[in-house]
């Protein structure tokens, strides 16, 4: 159970990272994140099964395409309504609905739609059998967090990311174009979502409803962890991940979603800015 | 040199006289004020009473969605951005449904009780998060109806996935239509009056600048809770009404459609006008009825409307229409 909790937590962290990146930097709550996740799954599936492109290449292609797609959404839709919170939420939510319900209409439902795992087989750790895929997820998350940390602290664009996250007007005066950087952050957030989809989806089938689930999970992890704080997100995903695993084991798997909600409510009641949120976020939230 | 013109807008004289001075001096001015209010009231009533039975149901659905979107707009003008009208709707629906199913109470008891209790329950549920602003509140309201759906599925309470069926209907369709039309206009004009009063001014000021409102010594959380109660009661009423109209309540009442269509209607009609969302709902619901054969593609269509309206026509129909009605436009040369 300890192992499964760990895996569940890392899956949650992976789902939330992309959402968190976009929100933390550009302040745009990307409600289309779940849709992007599902689209990435279907895109990879199409590349592999319809066009016969090898797996590694189609995965890479998907990540790049979804990244561009996210940046385009920013460029043509979000940019016009940036700063108007109601409009931002409605527009991204609308995009999410367009994508998900269209996929539902086209009929991407069924067990046929699943991605292959990277390496088949399972290993035994402390008496629990674990798929190698799940272990790989843990590896990927650690890798991704390291890359993100290095990127935001040591590259010019990463520093610009943090710049506009902290103080948009000052960074403007230092020659950083907030719109361009926000577009990049949206693109990267979407690409991370695609990456999460490719890594996580082989564990199950691709369904349209998982889009909403991913969005809910990402939201709850981000709210609990404190939006914009990467380490808060990791901490929160461990808390929620273990709580969910424990409920699933001892109560019923139906209750796992309710655990996230209770976590959100408790956190908001005690510490509205999240576990590791900053003062600025407190001001934005309450 | 090229001559540049700009458009100038001036309020019509009759608008200024009848709006600000409150001294109506002629039938013309009375008519000017009554015309935009009476025409839809009478028009919709006539249409509703003379349509064939199937379209009568559509009118009822339209009114329900119109009320949902008016209440969404009311909440958003109080700074409470809700993505989960389905939550309030569903709570009202389940309250009325279970009162009728388990206690066999008649319709004229369940609907008022469900309105008040539903509003009260929704407020209690959202009370812990009432301190949140903007996006954060939206996120929570988006999650809650989905969670409640899961909860009902998990605990199998209140009929579980099957729902409660065989609830008592209205005596006849005439009563039903009259009742919902009256409720819709009461909600619209009531909320408009409320927003325009001193009490409503506090709601608007919370939206505009909650910090300044707090600094003026107003307990904004108490007022937000009151706004939430008013808004969610209206939705709960809709839920209770729908339950008796279809004689059924179940998990579909928490469906995304009840959250998304009101927002789409408000986006078309013009956010912040209260009457605009009603106009939007009157366009969207019959249209979606015509598109019924496309199934879930309808929701895709709402999504497109949302995105296009928010990005390209942020103003909405109602703002445009009221500008045309109340103001003169003319070209002025720029010196």
Write out key terms for the chains shown.
heterodimer; A: 286 residues; mainly alpha; two-stranded antiparallel ribbon; 12 helices; B: mainly alpha; ABC transporter involved in vitamin B12 uptake, BtuC; two-stranded antiparallel sheet; 5% strand
Strand and helix layout:
The complex is a heterodimer of chains A (286) and B (335).
Chain A: H1 2-26, H2 33-49, H3 55-76, H4 85-106, E1 122-125, E2 128-131, H5 132-154, H6 156-166, H7 168-173, H8 178-200, H9 209-225, H10 230-250, H11 256-270, H12 279-285
Chain B: E1 5-11, H1 13-20, H2 27-50, H3 53-77, H4 85-103, H5 107-126, H6 134-155, E2 164-165, H7 173-196, H8 198-208, H9 210-215, H10 220-246, E3 248-249, H11 256-269, H12 275-290, H13 297-312, H14 317-326, E4 327-333
Antiparallel strand pairs in B: 1-4, 2-3
Helix pairs in contact in B: 1-2, 2-7, 3-7, 3-10, 3-11, 3-12, 4-5, 4-6, 4-10, 4-11, 5-10, 7-8, 11-12, 11-13
Uncertain residue segments of chain A: none
Query: Structurally, how many domains make up the residues of chain B?
Result: 1
The side-by-side strand order for the widest beta sheet of chain B comes to: 1-4
Helix content of chain A: over 70%
Oligomer: heterodimer
Counted beta strands of chain A:
2
Beta fraction of chain B: 5-15%
* Count of β-strands of chain B: 4
Overall geometry of chain A: globular
**Largest interface: chains, residues each:** A-B, 42 and 44 residues
Rg result of chain B: 21 Å
In whole angstroms, how far apart are the ends of chain B?
11 Å
Derived structural class of chain B = mainly alpha
Q: Assign a percent range to the helix content of chain B.
A: over 70%
Please describe the biggest sheet of chain A, giving its number of strands, its sense, and whether it closes into a barrel.
2 strands, antiparallel
Order of helices and strands of chain A: HHHHEEHHHHHHHH
- Examine the secondary-structure arrangement and name the CATH architecture of chain B: Orthogonal Bundle
Q: Which regions of chain B are unreliable across 5 or more consecutive residues at pLDDT < 50?
A: none
Query: What is the class of chain B in the CATH system?
Result: Mainly Alpha
Order of strands in the sheet with the most strands of chain A? Answer: 1-2
